[in-house]
Design brief:
This protein is α+β, with helices and mostly antiparallel strands and 99 residues long. It is built from three helices and four strands.
C-alpha cells in the first residue's frame, strides 16, 4: 500500500512593485527547505499569466515536520522580509489519495 503524505499548496500573490524582490526571497527558501528532515518535495512555481502569483507545492512526511519547517529561521526571516509586500496568501493542506 502506498503511504500518504501531507501535501501543502500555498498561493502567494505579491504586490506588483515587490515581485522581483519577493521572487528572489522565495527562491532562497527552496534549498534550505529541501534539506529539512521530513521534507519530500518543495517546488516553487510562478504563474505564466499573472507574474505576481507564486505557488509552492510541498510534500511532508507528516504535520510534525511541517510544523518544524514553519518555525525555522529561514521561514521566520522570510515572514519579516515579506511583511506588507503581499496581496494575499492562501494555504491548502491536503492528503494525497491513493488506490
Amino acid at each position: 500500500m502506498k503511504k500518504s503524505y501531507l501535501t501543502l499548496v500555498v498561493h502567494i500573490l505579491v504586490k506588483e512593485e515587490f515581485r522581483e524582490e519577493i521572487k528572489a526571497e522565495l527562491l532562497k527558501l527552496v534549498g534550505p527547505t529541501r534539506g529539512e528532515e521530513g521534507n519530500i518535495a518543495y517546488d516553487l512555481h510562478q504563474d505564466n499569466e499573472n507574474q505576481n502569483l507564486f505557488l509552492f507545492h510541498e510534500k511532508w512526511v507528516n504535520q510534525d515536520f511541517l510544523t518544524k519547517h514553519s518555525q525555522s529561521t529561514h521561514i521566520a526571516a522570510y515572514k519579516i522580509f515579506s511583511k506588507d509586500k503581499l496581496e494575499n496568501v492562501t494555504a491548502f493542506k491536503m492528503t494525497e489519495l491513493t488506490n
